[in-house]
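Hello again,

I reread your note about wanting to compare the complex against the isolated chains. To keep things tidy I'm splitting this into two emails, and this first one only covers the full assembly. Below are the input lines as submitted, including protein chains and any nucleic acid or small-molecule components. They are followed by the predicted structure of everything together. The single-chain runs will come separately.
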Amino acid sequence: MIEQLLATSLPLAIVASTPLLLAVQGELIAERSGMINLGIEGMMLTAAISAVFAAQLSGSIAIGFLGGIAGAALIGLLFGFFAIALRADQIVTGTAINLLALGGTGFVYREMEQSAIFVRSVPHLGKQSIPLLQSIPILGPLLFQADLVVTCAWVVLPIMLAIILWNSSFGLRLRACGENPAAITANGWSVAAHRSAALAIETLLVGIAGAYLALALSSGFAENMVAGRGFIALSIVIFGRWKFKGALVGTTVFGATAAIQYAIQAMSPGFQFHLLLVLPYVVTLAVLCGLAGRVRAPQALGR
Amino acid sequence: MRQIAVAIAAAIAALLLLALTGSAFGHAPGELLGTLLRGSLGSRFACEGTLLKSIPLLLTGLSVAVAFRAGVWNIGGEGQFLAGALAAFLVARSVAIGPIAIVLALAVSMIAGAAWASIASLLRLWRNSPEVLTTILLNFIAIHLLGYAVNGPLQEASGKYPQSEAVPAAASLPALGGTELHAGLLIALAVCGACWFLLYRTSEGLRLRATGFNPFAARYAGINTGAQIFRAMAISGAISGLAGGIELLGVTHRLFERFASGYGYSGIAVALLAQLHPLATLASAFFFGALVTGAGELQRSAGISSTVAVFGQAIVILALILFGAIEKRMARKTPRRPAAGEPASVPSEAVP
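Full-complex prediction:
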């Protein structure tokens, strides 16, 4: 029964948790540079609504994704201005940005509901298989038969970003910003510039995540549609101990739990799935307090 | 004095930006602000609504203020609020005698909130886990546990909606003389006074503030900062838990899935606007209570989403940071006597 559950839920989990994985990778880069972006939830929400409007206005899915990135960039600039330029507290700034996005998108969405643009249909990202790779057993159907974003998020980006972070001098400096920013300054580099670069990468990924959420996983915007994915992303970064391998494993665990919960719900309606929902958070809590081995955050995280 | 000016400027900036945003979408700014004012303070009914909303905001604001003063990032007000409400519900429905049920339920809500917060502070003290993240995780755990409770063991007998039965009428907080208000207002005011007394008139409060202001100096002065953090977090959690208990017994009478609806997070805005001062929290909670109530009127009469209240909270926080930074720059240019013991608006050494 468990095998059958996994077989049906895993492909679903991979697609459904793609925005989550993108956000996790973005946040991982940001946290490695010493920034904790609590506002990732609001960033994704803003990306989702701007993606929908861009897609509706242009009728093009590609412009929709660009719109999502632009929306995220707006929030990224705001976070950068407060957290990097003014050196304001990152946690307070992030909390404010979440409130700003939640209130702002709710307001704008209600206003636009009455406008003419809104009646236009939202283009939807269709399936797209990758030739050759799609015929790999097991992995093919999971990663190469959904769409380009899934392939990028699960295969291309983790490899690319891991190489940048661990094997390039830029990545080394980025990590130094998160561990010992004074060392970067002493070498004549700018901590602010490196953190801005990390924030730009995060913004790009979260923008795509928000657009994917609105244009591929659902067909349009809904109030508070990110529904905690940003906070879960923050948890998975810890769960994965600030590594890309961990991020992939963590996202799969979270995604599979959610998918299995839906499957169980469909199979036996009376089942109390709410208790199952608690499980990933309890596991993350356990990881955080070091019950599952040593965990070490970047030393200068949040400063 | 400068802090008060910064806070007032931030509040005004938020209202102006709100009106400006509204006018960008074709709502006359004057009319928008007028509706906001009329809906929150324009009639007796509106004023009562504002005060009613201010009660949980005052308490969660105080909760955040105490924690931030001690340099602990309690972002878990939402979860502690729910833990308090859940515990209060369990007591209120099983104790037969009304007044005893109320007192007991509220006491237990404080214990539950404190216990829920203490998970985070103990993890920080024992395992060095950042409380920012653990409290957020605990929020989600509390939300899903509440979801489980109102869909499972605590669901109303008819099984129609995901909500609990109402608490017995005898266990509800008494109304204040023919108004919409309930006795929770008096409790919240008492807690506000108690917080001020604790922070500024007791040695415990001095140690607590010292821990937040400069933990290294505090430790050097012989303060057990770990124990201080633990107690601050417990007090903070207890106040949030009490807010949940009061909201249950005074307003909703039932538990349901979206019970907390953001009071925990709003508390952060309340506390920051009050510059973490308990007495200023009174004014700040009233301001945000009016904003929330006025936004409700905007939605009813002008069709503007009531989420503008949340938007306003965010602008207040960001404006506070911005104006605070500007004020600091100006202060640097025009040298003035450093006021002794002037508290930082937000302790900067809080993040582990």
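For quick reference: DSSP finds 13 helices and no strands in chain A.

B.
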